[in-house]
Write a structure and sequence with these properties.
By secondary structure, the chain is an alpha/beta fold. 40% of the residues lie in helices and 19% in strands. It is built from 13 helices and 9 strands. Strands 1, 2, 3, 4, 7, 8 and 9 form a 7-stranded mixed sheet that branches. It has a two-stranded parallel ribbon with strand order 5-6. The radius of gyration is 26 Å and the shape is elongated.
Length: 330
């Protein structure tokens, strides 16, 4: 994007006239340390559409063409793939619009502390109302909810597409089809705990064994079952790229044993609409459906054995989904 032409010579001439007028009238009384903009600073901002202090030595922040401040700091919880993928997508989109974007990967609690303190501008991976709700409640007066951009975030059991069951309440009578096993992830994980403490007793699955392993091992099991045409039932969650990569589908949970379905929301520091009004409007309209998000995650974390550079993988995905990406700021 090319910068706007600026009438520098004309501006300098008018600025000189303003200066002359100020000198003739005498300087107004300005106590030491008063940072109220002078008439020249006011005029420079009007003419140049940005800071009268381009070196950043105490003046306004640099602006992009739409009037937003140029600097944007995104925060994402470490290890949450959808957060990393979506943050990288917005970095790509915003840098194309002239913003300067930084992404900070931190612990979940630090995300919300940083937003409240103004150290971060935006966090796009907030699961509501349960997973991150307590963090939000502690600082609700210092945060702004940008709304849900993804609906249907939840834990689940998945099976191969041609499995003989559609619902968890059918598993008990088909346990032998799945070798009596439910494949899990890391021992002590929230997913395994939900299966063991809620799903199994709720649906009478005591005849099936939860087999803990690791997330990579679970994904390898899904891939192997698909290649062999075998039935498999495993714990998973959405959003996850495996739902785009493998021929699997979620089982219905009529008893709600996994808890309520959540949304993924964006949150911002309280005054984002004052410094970044255009960006705020874009984020309020931001949405992704499961198919899009799963394909974005698949491109970022699985294609070609996993991208060494997630940002580059996201850029390539964006080029293949140009209509959707252009619409994010349309």
């Amino acid at each position: 994007m090319s910068p706007r032409p600026r009438p520098v010579l004309a501006a300098l001439g008018v600025a000189a006239l303003v200066l002359t007028g100020c000198a003739a009238a005498g300087p107004p009384d300005r106590p030491p340390g008063d940072r109220t903009p002078s008439p020249i600073a006011d005029y420079a901002e009007q003419v140049f559409g940005g800071s009268a202090d381009p070196d950043g030595d105490g003046g306004d922040e640099p602006l992009v063409e739409n009037g937003d401040e140029q600097e944007v700091v995104l925060a994402a919880p470490q290890g949450w793939e959808e957060g990393e993928a979506v943050s990288e997508l917005w970095r790509y989109v915003l840098e194309d619009e002239g913003y300067s974007v930084t992404i900070e990967y931190v612990d979940a609690g630090v995300v919300f502390e940083g937003l409240a303190a103004g150290d971060f501008d935006i966090a796009l991976d907030t699961w509501m109302p349960d997973t991150h709700g307590a963090y939000v409640d502690q600082r609700q007066d210092e945060l702004v909810d940008l709304g849900a951009w993804y609906s249907g975030a939840r834990l689940m059991l998945v099976v191969n597409e041609d499995a003989p069951v559609d619902s968890i309440d059918e598993l008990a009578e088909h346990a032998s089809d799945f070798g009596g096993s439910i494949h899990g992830i890391e021992p002590g994980s929230g997913l395994n705990s939900a299966i063991e403490d809620s799903v199994i007793p709720e649906y009478g699955l005591e005849g099936m064994e939860l087999v803990p392993s690791s997330t990579p091992a679970l994904l390898a099991e899904l891939e192997a079952a698909a290649a062999a045409g075998e039935d498999i039932v495993a714990g998973l969650w959405t959003p996850h790229w495996a739902l785009d990569e493998y021929p699997i589908r979620p089982l219905e949970d009529p008893q709600g044993a996994f808890g309520q379905v959540e949304t993924i929301n964006g949150f911002a520091r309280a005054d984002l609409d004052l410094t970044h009004p255009a960006l705020t409007e874009w984020l309020l309209e931001f949405e992704m459906d499961p198919e899009l998000l799963h394909s974005l995650q698949n491109a970022a974390f699985n294609a070609d054995g996993g991208a060494a550079d997630v940002g580059q993988a996201v850029q390539e995905w964006a080029a293949e989904h140009e209509e959707y990406v252009d619409g994010l700021t349309g």
